[in-house]
Amino acid sequence: MSNEKIRTHLIISGKVQGVGYRYYTAQQAKQLGITGWVKNLPDGRVEAIFEGNKQAITDMINWCHQGPPAAEVTEVTINHEKPQGCNQFEINR
Predict the structure, then answer these.
(1) pLDDT tens string 7-34
(2) CA distances to 2, 23, 24, 62, 76 from 18, in Å
(3) Residues designated as active site
């Protein structure tokens, strides 16, 4: 399997704010060796950018469909983008 880096841009909808979604996303991303960021949007959704190898990104996307225990994810919109060389994972405000 290729070790080529890919980048995905996600918008997660549902009950995803006030449930630790950003914190748990950061923990999961760090476990999988993924870089990028996650932040809350003013409309109640969560936005995230993930960069890493294809399998790690696939695992991360699958996790995002569930989220942390208190979350109720209703939709995950995924767009693929050109990697930009993120070097860590951050929680943005």
Answers:
(1) 999 999 999 999 999 999 999 999 999 9
(2) 37, 10, 12, 21, 18
(3) 22, 40
Instruction: Tell me the CATH number at 24.
Output: 3.30.70.100
- Minimal CA–CA distance to 28: which of 38, 18, 19? 38
Domain count, the chain: 1
* 40 pLDDT more than 50: yes
> CA–CA separation, 32 vs 80, rounded Å?
18
CA dist 86 and 67 (Å) reads 22
pTM, two decimal places: 0.95
Give the residue numbers spanning the domain of 18. 5-87
